Structures are given as structure tokens and as C-alpha cells.
Amino acid sequence: MRKKLVTGIVFTVAAGAALMVGGSGQAEAAVAPRKIAYLTTDSGTILPVLDLTTNFIALRIPGFKTPGSVAVTPDGARAYVTNNAGTTVSVLNTATNTITATIPGFLRPQVVVIAPDGRHAYVTNWSTSTVMVIDTGSDTVTATIPVGSHPTGIAVSPNGARVYAASEGGNTLSVIDTATNTVAATVPVGSFPQRVAVSPDGNRVYVTNSAGNTVSVLDTATNTVTATVPVGGGPYGVAVNPNGSRAYVANSAGTVSVIDTGSNTVSATIQVGDTPRNLSFTADGSRLYVAKLGAYPFSVIDPATNRVVDSSGFEGSVEVTGLSFASSIPTAPTAHLSLTALNNAVRADASGADPGWYQISDTIFDFGDGTTVTSQKLTAPHAYEQPGTYTVRATVINWLGLSGTTSQQVTVKPEGPAVALLAPSLERYVTAEAAGTGGLSTNRTQIGLWEQFDLIDFDGTTVALRARVSGHFVRVYTSFGDMGTGAPGFNDDMLFQLVHNPDGTISLLSRTTQKYVSTNNSSCCLVANRATIGAWEKFYLTPASNAARSLHARANNRYVTAENGGRLPLIANRTAVGQWEQFDVVDLGDGDVALFSHADNRFVTAENAGNSPLAANRVWVGLWERFQFIRNADGTVSLLARANNRYVSADDFGKKPLIANRTAIGTWEKFDL
Fold this sequence. Notes:
The chain is mostly beta strands. The chain has two helices and 63 strands.
């Protein structure tokens, strides 16, 4: 990613009362203003705001076109930002850090300064070779003053009577009388002048000449250059300390030259590295910030010793070319909440929240049923044990500890149908041992209450399993993947990714271990510890309502049986239902089912691609073991074999074994389920 180039830093104090934070039942506390810097860049649409306490980017304000210069009003309430790549100047409310006005009529505006009384702002307009005057009361342009070719830097005298604009195209300094908004003098300076600074007493003006490697010193009484001071290579920014004894010059060659203003000589050269651009003193003059293009966006100089005391990089990959200091009250996040409900499950999403200062660090979801989840994620699923209407609250907290809360109501429906998990590798069902308060085993041949689970689907992929017998969720409670249903409540270790395998089975990927749930070919314990899906990690889903079903043939009013414990083909010859006449209907997806016989714990197959009678002798489901239930108008069902797309028939009025050999449905092909 290309780094942003920051060209300026500005300091201010935002107007307005201190922010009060705290929720219901909490004592409210004022949030103290923090020192910040607006960072100007050579590209992009964002104005970064640096928190000087942490040297982290606290805000990224959108809506600019290469913000190149920032000037803050004396009362700290507003900042004026030039859009170097556009035709406007933006007005920023420093309390809310939002753009409140956009002033048109410029063409590549460069640098903005504000008069000491705050009533006017002055902007160099590079493409039109003018200085434009903004009335800050109405935020409109009230005057356009022709100056030298391609003006860049600009400064205003301490009494506001004069504005000095450097023009790089003409190598001149224009002296503007602010009472008449006319040029009172045009003074030749050095080659390719860039930035301008006025001494605190208003008696001298310093102009950097980037192509001449010099600084021109202007006597404001006579508007003449009285000294030309050699400095480092490519001088750009210039700033004078509060007592006027020294001027500091940022040289593109990686140094800062210190000019003794009494002798107009360089008294010190400070190595800062990278490519220095602009300089800004803090309000008390105790520190000088040097904005740079490079890995370390700024260096901090102690003017008392002329030593670098900090060379900082910070989060955000921003290269600084200028800073404008300010003080602003941090803003708290604005919470957002959307809820997606599916039966008795809900997915809470707070991702639309506005973080305020910094990023959101934590989100607290209160689901209104006594369950509270604190997460670094902005989403959380939850399943309710009882149907009803609940108030869900989301509280978002940013890195400063400021928070915002919002709430919504959700109505959840009763739980859907329960399912059972059949492990074909063991030909057994998963059970919640100890009535749903222990581990999970795979050792049951039939579906009872302990083998029934609610499969709760949050988003089509993320699911949870809840044991019907206890109401506890299946959870992965160790890093080794151990599983059980012993604990009540709900949290992230109860989430799985549901994987639909091509053969009609499903697999479960634990969100805790990122491993698949496996029987490990043992009836003892399910464990989420496998990196890939094999036979031991596959399960068939059987709706509990389709357990122990029987087929009653309309052909002869007899029940279908897996004769001789499944060793003989299926035939409709029984008058009552026993174990041989019971089948679990397994859901394979896409409308396909399989019949799992209780007689021998095998799947029914349309043997020999449907050319031989049906038999219960298969451990796994393939094409021959797939059927579709056809619902007939008279309430009966028919079985369409996927092996040959023929209907299963109780041939010869049920005297012969069942076989899939019919292309149409008649009485012999109808069954009561």
C-alpha cells in the first residue's frame, strides 16, 4: 500500500463543553481535551488527526482533495483546510471534526493563514497567481489580490496589518496591505521561494529559497532584504521561536538549520533524517515538531538544547509534510445494532457503529435473557432457550474507554424440529451422555431423547447444537477438542461451521479448535481434533420426527420388513410393527433420503442398480441407497429410487420382495408412512 504524504501539522483547542460519559446508573465523568495535530498530505481524501498523547491516529476525517494546509482560528473553534488538488477550501468544526462549509472559487489553493483577530483567512491560489481573502464570518471570498507568479507560502504579521506571500514562479515576496487588500510592495528574494515566517515583533520576515539553499531576511519597515543566509540543501519550511531569537529552517537534505536572528548566521545544524518539510512550535515553545517524508513522520526538537528528543512513527503509514496543532475533546462511539432472527436463534451485528476516536476495541452484547457476551468482534450469535420477545443491547467501546449503547427488540419463535447425528463409520447415533450433562458418545442404535439435538442455524454456515434432554449446548471445552454438554449458557466455543459433503453427509468444524469433529473410530467420545474430513468425521442428519418409521403397503395392507434381521430382501408381509419393520429416514439434502433399518443398522439399497430387490445391507449411502419420497394426493407416499429413477413396488400384491421397477404410480407403489 502506498503511504500518505503529510505536509502540515496544526494545533488548536476545540470549542464547546467537555464530553460527559457514563451509562444508566453510572456517575458521569468529564472527558478532558487532548492535544492533537491535523496532518496535511500530498494526496488522498482523508485528513488524519494525530493524538499527541499516544502518537496514534485518532480520527480520519473524509471529504478532502489532497488536504495541503490547515489553519486554526484563534478561538480554536474552526480550522480552514486547503484542497490542493481541487478548487475549494473546507471549513472544519474542531469540536465535531466534521466539515461544516466548503468555499468554492479556488484553483490549486496552497497555504492558508488566519488573521490574529480571526476575521479573515488568506489563501495562496497557485494556478491563478492570486491571494484570496475569506470572510470567516460568512465563509465567502471577499477579495482576490493579484500577486507574483505561482504563490506558495504565506504568513500574516502579528498585528494583522500585513500579509506576506512568496511566489515561486517569480522569485518574489508580495507585501499585502490588509486594510485595502492591495499589494503595497513586491520584493525580490532568492530562487524558488517556498515558505514564509514573521518574527513575533513583526520586524522581520524569513523566506526559504529552495533552489538557492538560502533564507532571505526582510526588514518590514523598509520592505527590503537585509540579509541572505546560506542554509542546508533544499530549504522548505521555516518557523521562528516565540521570543524571536532563532529561526528554524527545514532542509530537504535531512537537516534543520538554526539561524541566530541577531547575527543572521547559522548557529547549529540538527540532523533529523528523511525529507523535512514544515515546522511547527507548540504553544509554549518548548517543542518544535518537524514534519518529514519518510519512515518516521516527524522529529521533535527541544529548542533549549537543539537536540532531537523523539523521532516517531505511528499507526497508519502516514508520511508527514506538515502539522497543525490543536486540542480536541474525544468523541465516544455511536452504537449501531441489526438483528437477524431464525426461529429461536439471533445474530447480533454492531459493525455499522461509528467508532468516534480510535477503533472499537470491545463490544458487549446483552441478549436480554441473562446472557451477556463481551467480544472483540462486532458480531455475536445467540440461541434462546424460551420463545418470546427480548431486548438486545449492544455497547461498543473504543480504545479510550468511551462507549455508546443502542438496543433493539427481537421476537424468537419456538425451537424447530430436533435432529439426530448418525455416524456411518460406527453405524451408531451420537448421544448426550448422563442425560445431557456429560460427554458425547457414539453408541446408540436408535433415537431417543438423549440422541436428539436442536440444530440452530445462525447464517447458513454457522450452527450450534443443543441437547434436547438437558437444554445445554454442545461445546468444545479444551484446546484438545474435548466435547460435552455439561455446562449451561452460550458462548463462542459452542459454534461450528456446518459442512455439506457431496455424499450427503455433514461435517462439523469447531470454531474453537478449527478442527473437525470426529468419532476417531471409537464409540467413546466425540472430539474436535481432525484437520481433514475422512470417514470418521462424517455424519448423517436424521430428523427426530422421522425416527422409527414404518412403511404400510397399500397393495396388501401389510408392513414392510427387513426379513430375517435384514439378511433377506425387503417384503411387505407383516401385520404388526417390530424392530425389523422400523426405519429411520435420513435427510441427505436436495430432497433425497435414505432408509436406515433397525433390523441390522444398515441402509436400504436398490440392489444391482435397481434390477434386484431392495435389501438392508449397506453401511454407507451411495446412489443405490438414495430415494425420494413422493407425496401423493391421497396422503400416501411413493419411493423413487435414484439408482434407476423407477418407483418401488410391492409386486404381485405384496407377495414378492420390494423392487424399483415401475415408471408410474399405482396401488402397488403406494405406502403409508
